[in-house]
Amino acid sequence: MTLGIVGLGRMGGNMTERLRRAGHEVQTYTRSGAGTAASLEELVSQLDEPRVVWLMIPAGAPTEEAFSTVLGLVAPGDVIVDGGNSNFRDSQRRAAVAAERGIRFLDAGVSGGVWGLENGYCLMVGGDGEAVAIVEPALRALAPEDGYAHVGPAGAGHFVKMVHNGIEYGLMQSYAEGFEILKASELGLDLTEIAGIWRYGSVVRSWLLELLHGALEREGSDLAGIKGYVEDSGEGRWTVHEAIAEDVPAPVITAALFARFASRQDESFAAKVNAALRNEFGGHALKRE
Fold first, then answer.
1. Of residues 161, 180, 186, 227, which has the active-site annotation?
2. Which letter does DSSP use for residue 108 in this model?
3. What's the pLDDT tens digit per position in 14-44?
4. Annotated catalytic residue: which of 17, 25, 168, 242?
5. CA neighbours within 13 Å on the CB side: how many for 40?
6. Annotated catalytic residue 193
7. Residue 189 burial (CB < 10 Å; 0-12/13-18/19+)?
8. Taking the mean position of all CA atoms in its chain, how far away is CA 222?
9. Is there a catalytic annotation at residue 161?
10. In this structure, are strands 122-127 and 52-55 parallel, antiparallel, or unpaired?
């Protein structure tokens, strides 16, 4: 099939290459000018009907701007796919706006990172079934076997991806805390070796553990060259918000999100308050700067 991809970053560029390797014709647009089209208008003109335009750009204003522009260029029956990490409520709204013009809209949660080119991408797709059928040849080319599903109506793809990333926060934090405990031990443990053996037969083996082992091998067991500053891209926050809205207890994911916040503080004022209080009520020694 022929489709257009907007955005050739780490994900979009590799997805384009994987699709081309599978025999699909992919037209591309990126603000840097590196695509087959110099504008979104030209990109749309390069596509066969029903046109499929797949957005792989940052969530928020960039996606909103691109969606609005593309919506004004395509025709009834065409399909717009948002493969970024948009909030599922934004996807529901965009699907409704598109439907008013007879345009189909799909929200596709995409997981696989920089490894997706060779390993494939797990795809969680929300939207109309007829629209999914149009895009399905590309979906099957992008995903590994059994790695793609039409998970529900508009917004479902991004909702499932949101929870996926919330779970990812918890898994990563668990590994982080466990390996800090190992490192703090006086037993002289080789963290790279331990991560290595846990990959085989252990109940905690996972792809994340394999990636950690690779990082320890490359950076050294103390990870001395890496600053302990952990960003979040939004999905963890949204997962916690939805857990609160639905009265679902999610202490692990919530704690993992807060741990990321804590990583960005040079020094915690809350810790200073704790230290001052311990000194006041118990006379515990203070460490001065």
1. 161
2. E
3. 999 999 999 999 999 999 989 999 999 999 9
4. 168
5. 18
6. no
7. middle
8. 27
9. yes
10. unpaired
